[in-house]
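Researcher: Last one for today. Full complex below.
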Amino acid sequence: MTTQTPAAARTGHVRARLSPRRRRLVVRVVQYVVLLAAFVAVALLIKWDSVAENIFNIDAARALLPKIPRAFGNTLLYMVCSFALSIVLGTLLALMRVSEVRLYRIVSTIYVEFFRGIPALLYVIAVGLALPLVVNFSLTSTLLKVTIALGMVSSAYVAETMRAGLQAVPRGQIEAARSLGMSTARTTMTVVVPQAFRIVLPPLTNEVILLTKDTALISSLGLMIPEFELTKIGQNALSSGAGGGLTPMFVVGACYLVITIPLGIFARRLEAKGARSRS
Amino acid sequence: MTAQATAPVVDIRGLHKSFGQREVLKGVDLTIAPGEVVCVIGPSGSGKSTLLRCVNQLETASAGSVEVLGTEITDPDVDIDAVRSRVGMVFQGFNLFAHLTVLENCTVAQRKVLRRPKEEAERIALENLERVGLGDRGDAHPHQLSGGQQQRVAIARALAMDPQLMLFDEPTSALDPELVGDVLAVMRALAEGGMTMMVVTHEMAFARDVADRVVFIDGGVIVEEGAPADVIGNPQHPRTQLFLQRVLDPTHAHGTTTD
Ligand SMILES: Nc1ncnc2c1ncn2[C@@H]1O[C@H](COP(=O)(O)OP(=O)(O)OP(=O)(O)O)[C@@H](O)[C@H]1O
Ligand SMILES: [Mg+2]
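Model: Here's the assembly. Have a good evening.
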């Protein structure tokens, strides 16, 4: 042992083991085998003959089809209106959160913590059933109720995102605007908010995705037929006893994906673009 | 009008500024006459930027008074935005608005603060971009320009407001050496055109050639001031001598013993 030169010892050591490259190869092969085994296991757990009957039932899908365009449009409408409220209210709350006025900060913090803390479904039901009884104006429009319910919940998340964006705007940008004679409010509107929006556009897109899915919650309200959105028509088709198992749910699920997947791709593009322009 | 022509553009009296417990400016008196170019030099951390930023209230004075263009800006009820719209400021880090084009950078304050119509604002912006040699880059975004170009846009942005005083805080410190010359040339032309300027700089050659007066500041007080030939060429105070020795001959920074 002691007579061996350090160089020889090292060579012996390397020969005894796989090179890092070969080791990575072995690990990769093992991973693929495990993944394949998982697929096979899942495939074995499924009764394939009843999948066609209960999940991909063409007749059930065809029966649902005429109702899809209106429901799809309603889902989009509810989402867009809610997001419009959410973005305005969320930005306002974020500005209050970073304000120098303590009262504004407190109000905003309470709002955000409240709406992030309660299940959205509770609030949707509360707005749908209780709110019309306690406000002294007529709150009958479903669209208005939906916008209030989903928009207010979403604005709490938007506020948190926007706050991070507002704080990420470099101090020098504000100083440059002020040195040109812009007031605090003017600086906020012309420099800070537009730049914060650019920073938070990717996470904001994710918020739109969440909001799209949250429109499913309003199926728990008493909707009239022209107001039905995707989840509602899916549920109705399920309970109609027309057969086809869960096929309606899969059909409306696919409709959500038609909205959310492009949004996801859009968000990733924005993120990549943002990373490029910052480097 | 004649009275204003002779009244100082900047009149600082007994200015003190503290950040918490730390007193950064310890009683500064400085006046700048119309058309005068004053260069402020001094070691890092001596309070040069703080002094400059007190002139347009980016920092609020702790004590003392600052009068700019005939307005007492240390008065709590001052309309500071009105004063700032007549005082241009150029920052070390350029601070161009990242979400706007070069042209929009130069028009946004004209339109929102001075309420100039779009066409007039764009005409004035272009004139000033021409003046700094960037008349053809109006459509570019700041991140597409070199540091030197960005700084010249920042100067054009300030000039588009028709300022009566220009403040510069180490405008060339963040630039690659080969880009410094273009920015200094613009500033020199501005000085020769009669602009009143207060320039914090480490460019001794610029201070020597362009300044009417050089102010050396150290430890929050003005240690020495006078004509560039005197302060830079023949400094009287030992602290000024040591500072200039370090700046002008950095490879012999501790060369006092070898003299
Ligand atoms: N906002 C601030 N809060 C606390 N301390 C500050 C603040 N701004 C400046 N200082 C301190 O005040 C001192 C003077 O700063 P100032 O920026 O005026 O120096 P300077 O002469 O411009 O230096 P440099 O040449 O490095 O720019 C420094 O010690 C700095 O740490
Ligand atoms: Mg400084």
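Chain A has one domain: 58-278. Chain A has a mean pLDDT of 88.
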